[in-house]
């Protein structure tokens, strides 16, 4: 591949196309800043004004995306064989992705886009109130409207033969993801995880929740989160760590990546775990190929691959014994006497407490994936018509009983707990578990490539793993789609086996299974 | 005036015009957020990317401003007598200001706009390095280029008969401001201030710099700044207080106004003074007429009137004995034992130390205006050709000797101290002193209208003054130009007399003059 050569025709159709793509991405980076600011800095009174600013940029960006001139330039470029000769050249990747964006954006009639946004906005407000009041009936008509509109969008997008409506929407979150493909990977994972959770429930011993007993103030928690994220490779010259109600990361540009965590009373682990998670996203964002800034070639592969980066630092690293051998002294230094008497066994155990629970975002590394499977199966059935929206609570509760062995006491802590369906996002949830699967499979390859990895982690030397991730994943931008990247890096298609082996290997000795 | 009636023709030319104006202002509010973020939050590495985001929005906003369709709609609207019947109706004001913006923006050829921006950008970098190295010769060619371009812009803008080039540029910062008009107001002020400074120099007694001896940490300073700004009426539901290298305020929207201060070692007054100053700007921004959001009618009158709001809270209020009667206990509560033994006389005196100095931004309330006059006189001469750029240092140093009685030891602390000329901003400086003059004249009227004002300030009751400002100034938006507003509110044209009387009245007893 020779990116420079293929892109170096001044005033070619390709140059003109890319100039438009760059302008769109640049404006998108400003929209990202508006979103980040809304979650971290915006005074409460400014929310309505912010929604106007955001809507204006969304409109301008949409206009840039569907501009007929983009369609014409694409046709011109696609007639140029040389440009497409190497399918993983920057030019070919940029055209592939710009074509995809253009086609998806132009397939939806403006009326449907607006109606979906309008209903989603009301439905999200109604959902928040219905959840507060634990009143599913109140949310039901809005869920039904969201589903009707989602089906209409799916029909506009279309899907390949043998597919289903769900696929057409999921494609918007993860390219080439289909319900059938997900089910094939999830089925063995589900059975093995249910079995693992059951064995852990009957285990002869279990670690203590040592972090619940640590009482330190927010400054100490922030100090630890900052030190550890810096140590693992998040670059504060090109990034920030702030506070938000729900932790998130925002890659405005590789030189401006912002992450957040949160500090809740009586929870001395969450600020660190969440910060490591978001720093994993952030390190990916900071190491995207800056020479391809503002083009698809300079963007992250997909939500699932992004999630693999966050999960690897949070889990494969942050919940390992090796990590805590290094981190316990750092924690002691930040937490002072509140950490007195803690051993490596204590903190390693405390980060690996597995316990079936009701709430996805608070779930542990094992049961988290079962929460996702419930949602995937139910939203698939909702889209296919196999499940009516009115029957969602019953179906939800049954699956929680079956997979997690827990009784759901109310819909607020049941099928209304997540925001996603309230704004009509169908097909998003599986990307979380795909992220866990990619993380395990990538990490296994990293361990094979870096035989000293565990020893380096023990010594607080994270640079080798980071460099491995940069070289194998980050620097490629969107060169490969997620499945291709996985085969390129691990020499295997994605399977559930590495995640299961990783969990068994860590938890069996800990729980005496 | 009846704003609703004149604006209520759906799909009229006026509605179409205003819709465009609103879109432009809305995008401008996003540009304001980018600027605020750059000064407060942006990671160092993100500076280059930020300049691209900012340049893109500037280009989009410029395109919206000079769109020929705006020109056509303006002509259509201006033919509608009903719209213009009442010159202070929202419609008439919006048309007047939109016409002005359109004419000024279209008078400059795109080439000149770009060349000015390009040279200013390099010149500002060169200025920073030249100042660092105390090397005026290095800055000189860039200053000369800036002046040449400024003259070209001034020629494009033009000016009325009897005016001069400087006026054409100053009009961009303060409508109807002319060098001759400024000189008429400044001349008596200059003589009186030089005399006052001399008398203070020979005064039988002088207050101590008590704040220099107070050693407290940043949290204590922030706490005091926050409490006082909240007390005087800055609304934290629609605002924030942050830290930046140079304090500033940013009205993104009346519901989102952000102010900053700074915390330097060994300076326990500056964080409060700067915060009160910026809160004065902020209170103005928060109380602009929100029903006219995104239109000129909903904007501040001018830089000078804006500065009058900041200066009034910083000086007329914040450096008064009445204020310190209320504020000393608040300061004690924030500063703890570091404030032991301080009396009201001490802190009132400490905020009124007058001492000729070299640096404008650190100058006291009296000498500040002399710094401004030096700059006004010199930039006027530079524009008219009476002074060559190479002769600037000598002329500068001579005026400092003459007006302030100080010897300028080097150009870094002399004619290179300010950023303004490095980016070609000619005509800006006088707005600072105009702000001081408006502040004094407005405050005198407020005192006449609110006979209890000093007693309310002593009691920490600032609501009456704030309401007076909202009713007399803020709620009018751009209804009146600054001169008209002054006559409307104070029933007199602007003169130097109220400022001089205020300074004499406060300082004579303090210094025993």
Count every helix of chain A, treating DSSP H or I runs of 4 or more residues as helices: 22
Low-confidence stretches of chain A: 1-8
- Biggest chain contact: A-B, 34 and 34 residues
Distance between the termini of chain A: 50 Å
Q: For the residues shown, what is the average pLDDT of chain A?
A: 95
Order of helices and strands of chain A: HHHHHHHHHHHEEEHHHHHHHHHHH
CATH topology category name of the domain at 213-357 and 431-478 in chain A: Neurolysin, domain 3
The gyration radius over C-alpha positions of chain A equals 23 Å
> Please, what is the oligomeric state?
homodimer
Tertiary shape of chain A: globular
How would you describe this structure in keywords?
homodimer; 513 residues; mainly alpha; Neurolysin, domain 3; three-stranded mixed sheet; 22 helices; 3 strands; 3% strand; disordered N terminus
């Amino acid at each position: 591949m020779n990116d420079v050569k293929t892109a170096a025709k001044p005033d070619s159709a390709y140059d003109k196309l890319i100039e438009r793509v760059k302008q769109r991405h640049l404006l998108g980076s400003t929209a990202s800043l508006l979103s980040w600011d809304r979650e971290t800095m915006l005074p409460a009174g400014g929310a309505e004004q912010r929604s106007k600013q955001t809507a204006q940029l969304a409109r301008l960006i949409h206009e840039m995306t569907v501009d007929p001139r983009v369609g014409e330039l694409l046709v011109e470029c696609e007639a140029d064989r040389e440009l497409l000769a190497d399918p993983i050249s920057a030019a070919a990747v940029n055209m592939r992705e710009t074509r995809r964006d253009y086609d998806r954006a132009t397939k939806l009639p403006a009326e449907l886009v607006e109606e979906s946004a309008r209903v989603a906005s009301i439905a999200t407000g109604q959902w928040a109130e219905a959840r507060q009041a634990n009143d599913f009936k109140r949310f039901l008509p809005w869920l039904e409207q969201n589903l009707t509109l989602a089906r209409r969008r799916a029909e506009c997008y279309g899907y390949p033969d043998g597919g289903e409506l769900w696929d057409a929407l999921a494609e918007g979150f993860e390219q080439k993801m289909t319900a059938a493909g997900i089910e094939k990977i999830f089925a063995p994972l589900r059975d093995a995880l249910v079995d693992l959770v059951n064995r852990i429930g009957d285990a002869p011993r279990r670690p203590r929740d040592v972090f619940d007993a640590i009482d330190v103030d927010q400054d100490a928690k922030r100090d630890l989160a900052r030190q550890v994220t810096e140590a693992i490779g998040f670059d504060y010259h090109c990034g920030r760590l702030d506070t938000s109600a729900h932790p998130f990361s925002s890659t405005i540009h590789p030189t401006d990546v912002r992450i957040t965590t949160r500090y809740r009373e009586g929870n001395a682990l969450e600020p660190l775990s969440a910060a490591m998670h978001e720093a994993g996203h952030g390190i990916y964002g900071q190491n995207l190929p800056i020479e391809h800034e503002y083009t698809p070639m300079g963007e992250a592969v997909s939500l699932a691959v992004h999630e693999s980066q966050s999960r690897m630092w949070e889990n494969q690293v942050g919940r390992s014994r090796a990590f805590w051998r290094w981190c316990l002294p750092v924690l002691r230094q930040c937490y002072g006497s509140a950490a007195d008497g803690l051993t490596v066994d204590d903190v390693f155990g405390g980060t690996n407490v597995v316990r079936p629970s009701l709430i996805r975002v608070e779930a542990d590394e094992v049961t988290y994936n079962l929460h996702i499977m419930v949602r995937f199966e139910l939203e698939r059935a909702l889209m296919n018509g196999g499940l009516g929206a009115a029957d969602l609570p019953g179906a939800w509760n049954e699956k929680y009983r079956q997979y997690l062995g827990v009784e759901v006491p109310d819909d607020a802590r049941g099928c209304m707990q997540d925001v996603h369906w309230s704004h009509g996002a169908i097909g998003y949830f599986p990307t979380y578990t795909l992220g866990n699967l990619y993380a395990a499979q990538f990490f296994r390859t990293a361990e094979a490539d870096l035989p000293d990895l565990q020893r380096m982690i023990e010594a607080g030397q994270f640079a080798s793993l980071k460099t491995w991730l940069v070289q194998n994943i980050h620097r490629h931008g969107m060169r490969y789609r997620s499945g291709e990247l996985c085969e390129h890096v691990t020499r295997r298609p994605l399977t559930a086996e590495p995640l299961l082996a990783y969990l068994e290997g860590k938890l069996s000795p800990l729980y005496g299974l």
